[in-house]
């Protein structure tokens, strides 16, 4: 079993990088310089035709999409318990949350950051306004889920939902209403950011913002 993660600091690869460290499995991490356009090099496009990170090469085969990678890693390492097993009553909610984060929160985040690049710069402000509304609604809904005092989004157990959600919450740090400003998300974020594997991920990626004091 070999893993090679193609990542960029703080990008959609962060959740996968963090999960690999939580799992404690050996892997190689290769940085992709997005500012230099390395994601569009012929070599990288062979691994990831969309020119995006993350890509995780598993035993020689490239796999893309952060949420899919988290779910796949949970399946490959069931002993870690980062996903409810088939038949577990929480399994449906886990799938629902993973797809909703990937489908409902990640796309408006992309729109917020890439409005000019992905679309017509003349319409970027309108795209960003809609993205902001969707992001704030999604963060409010995550905040409401934690209102019963549960430590993790699925309940008592840390799962891939938390890896994906925290990465997305981190992206809100310079937005008008960051996740850290919500009453139930604030302690949740503190708790997850204290995990040694998260701290180590930030150290390896050279991230100095959004750490616990
Ligand atoms: N749906 C993808 C999104 C990946 C994505 O948009 N990655 C960004 C960084 S956060 C990227 O590679 N951007 C470089 C570019 O678009 O040129 C996933 O979840 O893996």
Polypeptide structure, described:
By secondary structure, the chain is α+β, with helices and mostly antiparallel strands. It folds into two domains: 3-80, Glutaredoxin, CATH 3.40.30.10; 91-194, Glutathione S-transferase Yfyf (Class Pi), Chain A, domain 2, CATH 1.20.1050.10. The protein is built from eight helices and four strands. The chain has helices spanning 14-23, 42-47, 66-76, 91-118, 124-145, 160-171, 185-193, 196-205, and strands spanning 3-7, 28-31, 55-58, 61-64. A four-stranded mixed β-sheet has the order 2-1-3-4, with helices on one face. Strand 1, helix 1 (14-23) and strand 2 (28-31) form a beta-alpha-beta unit. Helix 1 (14-23) runs antiparallel to helix 6. The protein is globular, with a radius of gyration of 17 Å. It starts with a strand and ends in an 8-residue tail after the last helix. The protein binds glutathione. Glutathione binds at residues 11-12, 34, 39, 51-54, 65-67, 106, 110.
């Amino acid at each position: 079993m070999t893993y090679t993660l193609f990542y960029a600091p703080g990008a959609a690869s962060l959740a996968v990088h963090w999960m690999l460290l939580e799992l404690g499995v050996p892997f190689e991490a290769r940085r992709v310089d997005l500012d230099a356009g390395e994601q569009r090099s012929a070599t990288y496009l062979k691994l990831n035709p969309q020119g995006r990170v993350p890509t995780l090469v598993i035993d020689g085969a490239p796999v893309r999409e952060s949420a899919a990678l988290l779910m796949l890693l949970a399946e490959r390492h069931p002993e870690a318990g980062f996903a409810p097993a088939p038949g577990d009553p929480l399994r449906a909610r886990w799938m629902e949350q993973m797809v909703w984060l990937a489908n409902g929160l990640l796309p408006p985040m992309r729109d917020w950051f890439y409005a000019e690049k992905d679309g017509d710069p003349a319409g970027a402000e309108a795209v960003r306004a809609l993205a902001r509304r969707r992001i704030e609604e999604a963060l409010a809904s995550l905040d409401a889920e934690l209102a019963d005092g549960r430590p993790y989004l699925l309940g008592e157990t840390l799962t891939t939902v938390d890896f994906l959600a925290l990465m997305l919450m981190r992206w809100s740090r310079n937005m008008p209403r960051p996740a850290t400003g919500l009453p139930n998300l604030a302690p949740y974020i503190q708790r997850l950011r204290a995990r040694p594997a998260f701290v180590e991920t930030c150290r390896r990626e050279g991230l100095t913002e959004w750490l616990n004091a």
